[in-house]
Amino acid sequence: MKFNYIALTILGLMTGNAFAQQANDIKMIESLCGCYDVKFTYAETFSPDSNYKFHERETTQARELIIPIEKTDKKIVLQHMLLVGGGHVIKHWREDWVYEAPELLNYTGENTWVKQKVDKKDVAGKWTQTVWQVDDMPRYQGYSAWINNDGKTYWENTAYAPLPRREITVRSDYNIMKRTNRIIPTSYGWLHEQDNDKIIRTAKGDELLAQEKGLNYYTKIDDAKCAVALAKWEASKDFWVVVKKEWSRYIDKQSVLMVKDLVDDEKLYEHLYVVEKEWKEKKLSEKELEKKVKVVFEKFVSTSTASK
Can you give the CATH number for the domain in which 195 is found? Predict the structure, then answer.
């Protein structure tokens, strides 16, 4: 009886610690929200090819609002809204945080993602971050625990991804980015640190073209300075709910997701922007909007039930 009592006591302590850790993790994720001045910096640092010509270092600045748009004890969704010159607002990336997610979308190249089952023990106590593109297309996904050690807190994961938007229109010498993302809460806001491998993927395998360091500094400022971005999101969020539902319809039921790069010489987000404009101007009903979004998806998205 004494052994059983001790065992139950230990189990209770372990369970309590897990709940406490989960609650602390949620606080860390929520701390990413707010209005920020952002400095994006990237520099190529290494190539195995002695003849490789390193690209110029990049430094850009912008303002970004990060809004919590969904929250439970096991899922937090954050929407990024980017403010650029002249007060122009762009719906930027979205990040979903899911606790102990059972599946993973693995990017394999050529706008293709393969869904994979994840062993429960591998994701126990861990959060899966999914980053979605401006049109809510998948980008990359990976899981890790939030680490609290020696006064340091961070989340770190490595995942395959398409080329970043800053390079996809100007480069074709590699086709996969292997991203190591490190999210670090700081006294000024938070830091998105990256160690990226630029990969040439062929049927023969992966070849490293170059490595890159990224340091993106999010410095928190008064929320009032992002008011225009919040207003933009409030005016368009119902449209993106419909788009998100359409993505879910494809992703939830299939194991392989493939997206065309162009249709009629335009990107998916360009087609969606046309529909969004029509929705606002003509005050389309939800059903009318769903039909138009579905037509766009049928042009771009195809799926497969290949084995996982």
Answer: 2.40.128
